[in-house]
């Protein structure tokens, strides 16, 4: 641990008799996504204390024990697991991963009813023990679940948001990088809208290095990203989750890494631009729906949404995505 470790943990100015304040992450659900997210957050040093909560006592305690045995090889942290919701008390960030499991061939929207019911039951006691936490919803269908959770919890829309298309944007950048032969870290592109079938890449604002993606002429014998190539990439972004679920039963690694990145942005107050799913109120004329657009994420939760320049087709696609989500929300009484 470094000499500046106290600053990293928010301990500057601590005097004798004061309580030492450390960052705490609570993860609700110790399934494939929740336990992998705990692992990713620990490996990245996102929080000093990680609490896993699940109604399956044996499972959650075993996951915490297994993670704890590896702490020697990670940044210093404490891991606890319990079927008692009090384990989440005082959390800075609460990540909700619990929900119905998506089956092969099943859309995220098909999961909505069972998941909304479950989230409605667990949120009130969570808010009671962690009223000041920033809540990140990861459970699918994340946009509908986030919208319903805001209504059920009464939390302000800055304090609760969904993981949205952070993972989809990562998939998009990965595929662009493969197609162009450049490092994925030099690709800057966002997926907006629903985390699901109506999502859309924002091609007109994407860049590779400093070059606008639509002006990319290719390097090393690789050609430009034609409309046909872009359409193929967009389809693969949407369909990749279904392929992974069909092959191994669940997506967990990439979503856990995406989630841990959001967690860090909150705990470390990074003001990082991430395409999270939040309640919009007039964004490009869109309101009263949760969907993903690039937004500032920091210690207070989700802040300003960036008015990203969009083509007429992109703006129309975003509005179609919003209408689709509104229709689903109405179907479930929200």
TrEMBL record:
Catalytic activity: (S)-lactate + NAD(+) = pyruvate + NADH + H(+)
Activity control: Allosterically activated by fructose 1,6-bisphosphate (FBP).
Residue numbers binding beta-D-fructose 1,6-bisphosphate: 173, 188
Family matches, as PANTHER family: L-2-HYDROXYCARBOXYLATE DEHYDROGENASE (NAD(P)(+)) (PTHR43128), L-LACTATE DEHYDROGENASE (PTHR43128:SF16)
UniProt-recorded name of the protein: L-lactate dehydrogenase
Pathway the protein contributes to: Fermentation; pyruvate fermentation to lactate; (S)-lactate from pyruvate: step 1/1
Domain Lactate/malate dehydrogenase C-terminal: 165-327
Family as reported in the entry's similarity comment: Belongs to the LDH/MDH superfamily. LDH family.
Subunit structure: Homotetramer.
Enzyme class: oxidoreductase
Localisation: Cytoplasm
Keyword presence, Cytoplasm: yes
UniProtKB keywords: Allosteric enzyme, Cytoplasm, NAD, Oxidoreductase, Phosphoprotein
Record's function text: Catalyzes the conversion of lactate to pyruvate.
GO CC, one annotated term: cytoplasm
Annotated positions binding substrate: 102, 108, 140-143, 168-171, 251
Boundaries of every Lactate/malate dehydrogenase N-terminal domain copy: 24-162
One GO MF term attached to the UniProt entry: L-lactate dehydrogenase (NAD+) activity
Chain residues that bind NAD(+): 29-34, 54, 59, 99-100, 138-140, 163
Sites of Phosphotyrosine modification: 242
HAMAP family in the record: Lactate_dehydrog (MF_00488)
GO biological process: glycolytic process; lactate metabolic process
